[in-house]
Amino acid sequence: MKNDIVTLEITDITPEGYGVGRIDGKVFFVADTAVGDICECIILKELKSHSFAKLVNILTPSRDRIESDCAVSKRCGGCVFRHISYDAELELKKNTVKQAFSRIAGIDIKVNDVVSGNPERYRNKVQYPFSCENGITQFGYYARRSHRIVSHSSCPLQDIVFTEIASYCAELCDKLHITGYNESSGKGIVRHAVMRKNRKGEILLCLVVAEKHRKLSILAEEIAKKFPQIIGIHININKKRDNVIFGDETYRLLGVNTLTDSLCGKTFEISPRAFYQVNADMAEKLYSHASTLANRKEDGSIILDLYCGAGTIGLCLANDSDKLCGVEIIDAAIENAKINARQNGRSEENTLFVCGDASVGVEECKRRFGKPDIIIVDPPRKGLDTAVIETVVKASPEQVIYISCDPATLARDCAVFAESGYFADSATPFDLFPRTGHVETVVLLERAGSTI
Ligand code: SAH
What pLDDT, in 10s, does the model give residues 163-183? Predict the structure, then answer.
């Protein structure tokens, strides 16, 4: 019952980072625990099939435990593994991918060791929610499963400069009476500060606001004066009262339109609304791996890059003789992709980027270049719609390279591919988001009996 104290042995961790303990078959989820902990927990919420509990006292600590080096890690929803060693986290992530395949898809697949890099200060992008408490503008990250803002003075996942900029911005908001936005009342102006940094250290700042305000340009000038590494400041207007970050209208207040970064020896322009991997070093490893999987013909293959964002994967992977078609739903990202293709020396006749739903990708590719030999898919967390899988299978490519940010939907989709004769031998996880519950996975699907 609620508020009862139970003693649990933690035997598993969910992908969201909750420790799992059982008493008489009943499952308890407890945050901030590690496999092997024996601990006393207080029941917070009891449901029929499972309960949520809070850690009260550790009787026997897990061998994976380490001291968290972040003052707010227990409250902040960003990291879920800061209290266990990084090696233990990598094992857990490998296991998450294994279990997704066996439990969801009934597929016994070899899961390789997680490819990893530096687990600290890897993020090149932050999205700080702003709010206003007692007339003072606040920023931070949301607490777990809530929109309560947890303030901090630094975050070990990112460059300290992001927090310094947000902090100065909050200070100016109060000075200029452009207060942070209050989600429950719908009052206030600044909703989010979204920042992206390239490898040279240049930063693009996009302030998401509930409405235009005449003093936003003063705010922008003051910020740019103090932080010369900011090369552009944009305003996005989001009037909606939901939790989607961006609204439809973005305009530039100051500096440049796009940030330019390099990946795998190529340069990429990225606008504020375009998707770009937040961990550039690990993205390079992932793209290089995808490239080694791709079986390109010597005289050129036809490559279709679905969910292509600013074109990064396809442009890193395609040789000059390959024909490359990329499809993506965000218009600004496709505009970036077209420029990126030109800037990286791709010929117009061998390149096509189309703004549209992934389900039209095969048709567009066929119309311009013919049937694709290799299809790369890199969908958002919800995975592939059945309509997309159908068009992909119908096109009968030799290879499908599936890059996924959610092992559960990846496994589900691989089961559908298997019904259509496309199978995977192995999966390789990549830790693009150390200390969080997220993991990327790359799988190569080939037709049974394929000759290549
Ligand atoms: N491959 C890119 C982007 C991957 S993120 C990279 O590595 O950088 C997933 C992308 O899918 C995002 O750019 C998102 O805008 C796009 N997307 C989401 N839904 C889509 C849909 N229905 N059709 C096409 N693209 C979509």
Answer: 999 999 999 999 999 999 998
